[in-house]
Automatic annotation (TrEMBL):
Pfam families: Amino_oxidase. Its EC number is 1.3.3.15. Residues 15-462 form the Amine oxidase domain. InterPro entries: Amino_oxidase, FAD/NAD-bd_sf, Protoporphyrinogen_oxidase, Zeta_carotene_desat/Oxidored. Its cofactor is FAD. GO terms for molecular function: oxygen-dependent protoporphyrinogen oxidase activity. It is an enzyme of class 1 (oxidoreductase). It comes from Bacillus aerolatus. It is found in: Cytoplasm. This is Coproporphyrinogen III oxidase. Involved in coproporphyrin-dependent heme b biosynthesis. Catalyzes the oxidation of coproporphyrinogen III to coproporphyrin III.
Length: 471
């Protein structure tokens, strides 16, 4: 049993911090641990990038709009907080890649751009004959000899060639990370591709063997993503409602963290007050850690870690304003196209429950590593740029009824080559020099909602083990 009540402070009220606070309090109740948990958030609201706008019958996400169903932690958490009946899959439909200013259907059977079916790959207009032949070399090439980290771009170019990478894989992967795939770390983003190659030698053959078979003919295809009927912000609100009264401090910033000789951790707040903790979980962006703990030089690596700025632009129209619509749910844009937008979702087709009857919602994305200036433009200028781009692929005959621009500055951390080793080094230093302090969140082990929730669960287990061992 623990001697006296122990204090755990969670810094950062995004989805990782919310998850940590929720599961800490749940664990304390379940096993009757004398544990006090406080969640501190600098902003006046919780949820971080999870924000939903409800306007004129539309449900519009400013940040993430969904999560992969196969990553089970997000749906499990939603069910735990009473939202199981609100989960809904996306409507499956054709998606496209925009290459050389033309929309090409995404080849069926491709997994993150890697073909698992030969016929759709051979008949697609995305690649030249030479590009297809080069991709076929994957069946003959030996597996990578390198056991150290490498770039996503380098790995896929070696296996499949430049054309497949630039016309399909890069638009898909950079859409997830808003990054440069020739700088992003393979082992910190998609280590499973390296593992498949090591096991099967051929990446194409390996992905075919490890990808579940699709539904048979006549079976309605089910979307692979989930969201909540009334927006993802409902998840934030539901988790917050489950937290103990008085355990959340909003509008409060932690300015400085230090360890006392007795092992306790002191947090200095922007209010001038101090707080004492037995364990601290930090889920804020990576660049805040060196600022909060400048005395620990091992955090200096994080000062060099880049983060891209992006924006989403949601535009609502009456149905009749789109005179040349496209049968599909959206497209991603290759870098060799003369477009500013990086992707567009036809939300009224992908998530029809979020749009009133007779209306259309287009959600476009701008900004990525090396191309971020557009994020700082005025709303009117962004609107003009996005409409100009959209009219190259479809015919829009009216101005939008309204528009929602959401800017996310330094919101997409870039896991560059060597990221995992740098993270391991930091965590080793923490164990030696700052025991009881744990880190997690989108800057470290995954950007998606389930990845962040997984990290929240992981740091809870670490903090509980530390406290119980300390006694």
């Amino acid at each position: 049993m623990l001697e006296g009540k122990k204090k755990v402070v969670v810094i950062g009220g995004g989805i990782t911090g919310l998850t940590a606070a929720y599961y800490l309090q749940k664990a304390a109740k379940n096993v009757q641990l004398p544990l006090a948990v406080t969640l501190i958030e600098a902003a006046p609201r919780l949820g971080g990038k999870i924000q939903t706008v409800k306007k004129d019958g539309f449900v519009i996400e400013r940040g993430p709009d969904s999560f992969l169903e196969r990553k089970e932690s997000a749906a499990r958490l939603a069910r735990e907080v009473g939202l199981g009946d609100q989960l809904v899959n996306n409507a499956a439909g054709q998606s496209y890649v925009l290459v050389n200013n033309k929309l090409h259907p995404m080849p069926s059977g491709s997994v993150m751009g890697i073909p698992t079916r030969i016929t759709p790959f051979m008949t697609t207009t995305l690649f030249s004959i030479q590009g297809k032949v080069r991709a076929g070399a994957d069946f003959l090439l030996p597996k990578s000899g390198s056991t150290t980290d490498q770039s996503l771009g380098g790995f896929f170019r070696r296996r499949l060639g430049d054309e497949v990478v630039e016309n399909l894989i890069e638009p898909l992967l950079s859409g997830i990370y808003a990054g440069d795939i020739d700088k992003l770390s393979l082992m910190s983003t998609f280590p499973q591709f390296y593992e498949v190659e090591q096991k099967y030698r051929s990446l194409i053959f390996g992905m075919k063997k490890t990808t579940p078979a699709s539904a048979g003919k006549g079976t309605k295809k089910k979307g692979i993503f989930l969201t909540l009927k009334n927006g993802l912000e409902e998840l934030v609100e539901a988790i917050e409602s489950k937290l103990e009264s008085g355990s959340v401090l909003k509008g409060t910033r932690v300015d400085y963290i230090e360890k006392r000789e007795d092992g306790k951790i002191i947090l200095s707040l922007n209010s001038g007050k101090q707080m004492l903790a037995d364990s601290v979980i930090i889920t804020t962006p990576h660049f805040t850690l060196p600022a909060m703990m400048p005395q620990y030089h091992f955090f200096n690596e994080l000062k060099e870690m880049p983060a891209a700025s992006v924006a989403t632009v949601a535009m609502a129209f009456p149905e009749e304003a789109i005179s040349q619509d496209i049968d599909g749910t959206g497209f991603v844009v290759s870098r060799n196209s003369d477009f500013t937008i990086t992707a567009c979702t036809w939300t009224h087709k992908k998530w029809p429950h979020t749009v009133p009857k007779g209306k259309v919602l287009l959600r476009c994305y701008v900004g990525r590593a090396g191309d971020e200036a557009v994020v700082d433009l005025a709303d009117a200028e962004i609107e003009r740029i996005v409409l100009d781009d959209l009219n190259k692929t479809m015919s829009i005959t009216a101005e939008p009824d309204f528009m929602v621009v959401s800017r996310w500055k330094k919101a997409m951390p870039q896991y560059t080559i060597g990221h995992q080793q740098r993270l391991n080094d930091i965590e080793e230093h923490l164990q030696r020099e700052m025991p009881g302090l744990f880190i997690g969140g989108s800057s470290f082990k995954g950007l998606g909602l389930p990845d962040c929730i997984d990290q929240g669960e992981e740091v809870v287990q670490k903090a509980l083990a530390f406290i119980q061992k300390k006694g």
